[in-house]
Amino acid sequence: MILSVDNINVHYGAIQALRGISFNLEEGEIVTLIGANGAGKSTSLNTISGLLRPTTGTVTYHDQDITQTPPPEIVRRGLIQVPEGRKIFASMTVWENLEMGAYLNPDEKEKESLIESVFERFPRLKERRSQKGGTLSGGEQQMLAIGRGLMAKPKVLLLDEPSMGLSPIMVEQIFDTIREINQMGTSILLVEQNALMALSIADRGYVLDTGRIVLEGPANDLLHNPVVIHAYLGGDTGEA
Fold first, then answer.
1. Count of domains for the chain
2. d(CA 202, CA 228)
3. Would you list the DSSP string of 52-91?
4. In CATH, what number is assigned to the domain containing residue 183?
5. What is the domain extent for residue 19?
6. In degrees rounded to 5, what are phi and psi of residue 229?
7. Alpha helices of the chain — where are they, by DSSP H?
8. pLDDT digit of tens for each residue in the chain (240 aa)?
9. Beta-carbon count within 10 A of 164 CB
10. DSSP state of 133
11. Buried b (16+ CB within 10 A) or exposed e, 103-112
12. CB neighbourhood size of 38 (10 A)
């Protein structure tokens, strides 16, 4: 098991955002967390990456407790988060944004090699290498955010709402890219409101509701679960 979250509780002051949730990620998997706004999906990722500290519970990565580990050290170990809303550096060029993704790597030649590999995956970014990030389209910014994450050589990639605000065609492209990254050996924990797309590429899924995990299982089973269909897929269960 590459990543395990065990009985995590998280508070924002008096408000409890996560209520004793537990889930895991096996090496080579895509696991998705789905749920409505405010369910606790992003809070889960921020807790794993060290941006939030749980009130109780444990986060384990490669059999080591990282619950209190500082975020830069978590990044150094290969656990990388691509945040919700992309959060690229708008005033910096595409190239400079990618360099920032490898800020912990002192090897300049390796950085250039990593940038070229990102350009191979996202040719549009290569065309815009000298363009400021803030002038890119939403889809291009999402490519840049993922590319910046890849610059840190992730063993586990935490993706927070990668399809948010994108056109249907761009959503397809982004999810194809996520699948390809996984096939190259990176384990992925995917937070996504587009439950249909997320479950279509995931191995397993967990459904969060008001800070609790209410359903879990193989992604294909969740795709056909009447509760999930009714609440998250916008469809009819077919029941009379």
1. 1
2. 15
3. S--SEEEEEETTEE-TT--HHHHHHTTEEEE-TT----TT
4. 3.40.50.300
5. 3-87+153-232
6. -60, -45
7. 41-48, 71-76, 94-101, 108-121, 123-127, 138-150, 168-183, 195-201, 219-223, 226-232
8. 999 999 999 999 999 999 999 999 999 999 999 999 899 999 999 999 999 999 999 999 999 999 999 999 999 999 999 988 778 999 999 999 999 999 888 888 999 999 999 999 999 999 999 999 999 999 999 999 999 999 999 999 999 999 988 889 999 999 999 999 999 999 999 999 899 999 999 999 999 999 999 999 999 999 999 999 998 887 544 442
9. 15
10. G
11. eeeeeeeebe
12. 13
* pTM of the shown model: 0.92
* 102 found inside a domain: no
The answer as to whether 187 is a domain residue is yes
Q: Is residue 94 situated within a structural domain?
A: no
Tokens of 127: 């065309």
Q: Reduce the DSSP state of residue 189 to 3 states and report it.
A: strand
Question: What is the spatial distance between Cα 113 and Cα 127, in angstroms, rounded to a whole number?
Answer: 17
Query: What are the angstrom distances between the C-alpha of 40 and each of 153, 210, 229?
Result: 27, 7, 20
CB 56 within 8 A of CB 11: no
Terminal-residue alpha carbon distance, the chain? 42
User: Dihedral of CA 229/232/235/240: which sign?
Assistant: positive
- Tokens for 64? 């080591």
The Cα–Cα gap between 50 and 43 comes to: 11
Amino acid letter, residue 111: K
Q: Is residue 41 part of a domain?
A: yes
